[in-house]
Amino acid sequence: MSNNKVLVVAPAWIGDLIISSAFINALKKSDSNLQIDLLVNENLSDIAMFLPNITNIIISKTSHGKFSFFYRLQLGFNLRKNNYSKSYILTNSLKSAIIPFIAGIKDRISYLGEYRYGLINGIIKTIDRNKGMVNRYLNILDREYTTDLQPLFNIGDNQKKLEEKYSINKKYIVICPDAEYGPAKKWPAQNWVNLVENLISNYQVVVVGLDNSIKNKINTLESNNIINLIGKTSLKDAVEVLSSAECVVSNDSGLMHLSSAVDVPIVGIYGSSSPKYTPPLCEESKHEIIYKDLDCSPCFKRSCPLGHTNCLNYITVDMVLSAIARLTE
Hints:
By secondary structure, the chain is an alpha/beta fold. It folds into two domains: 5-149, Rossmann fold, CATH 3.40.50; 160-328, Rossmann fold. It has helices at residues 14-30, 45-48, 69-79, 98-102, 133-138, 159-166, 189-199, 212-218, 235-243, 254-261, 310-313, 317-328; strands at residues 5-9, 35-41, 56-60, 86-89, 107-110, 122-123, 172-176, 204-207, 226-228, 247-251, 266-269, 287-290. The strands form two sheets. Strands 3-2-1-4-5-6 form a six-stranded parallel sheet, with helices on one face. Helix 1 links the parallel strand 1 and strand 2 (35-41). The longest helix has 17 residues, at 14-30. The termini are far apart.
């Protein structure tokens, strides 16, 4: 009897994890009897719970960017009992390939990444970056993205919970001014404040994220239609808030991809990154991309190497308002 258990090593960023759900969907379509276990960092476990087609979630208590060699050795030894036939490693780092190797998994499939000879024994040839992150994952299975692989979470009706927990009691727009990657992906804070001022006459505006500097700026606005949840929600809470929004406005960030996975209209603001590489994977009619495509774009840097961040500064509040209007009309 063939072994139908595989281990997928998940990406370490929220948005990448959401995009990788298309890979998991494709893997399941290839064999409906497949048991797919997901190895994911602890900080993303709340999101992993929403991903369809996962049999077991295995939590790694390593921190993003930390080698944690002895911990990885121990976890790898502990996983030997699961007798996986294959492992797909969706990350490039050397450290991410240690656990499948130590777990004794025969076929360890991925890109070479950080010279992972031996750790990876099924090396996949890389593809052009312009084909996008989702196709970078799917290429490991010799697939390309189709809409039937769209990452989607089933959240259900949570309006009563939103009213009780957050006092959200009318149609609302969510704004997500954060981007963990760095300032070259963050639209200027004052623009977010001006956007909120323009929206509160027609909507409740819910602000989510972790950036306290923007939290303080938003708090200078006086309106009962502003619900400032910066620093007050878990990732699971954020999913609930995003799922019933009329529209979400976000930098290219994990929250933008979460919004796509709960199938709400999205205005995506792109700076140093590329909408070709990491677009929201929802229907085209459900998103508006604002991207200036300057000569220096995309640079994929955390901070602007030229010191001006014009890729974001040239995006106006009126552009965003027009995009919201198109999605909500």
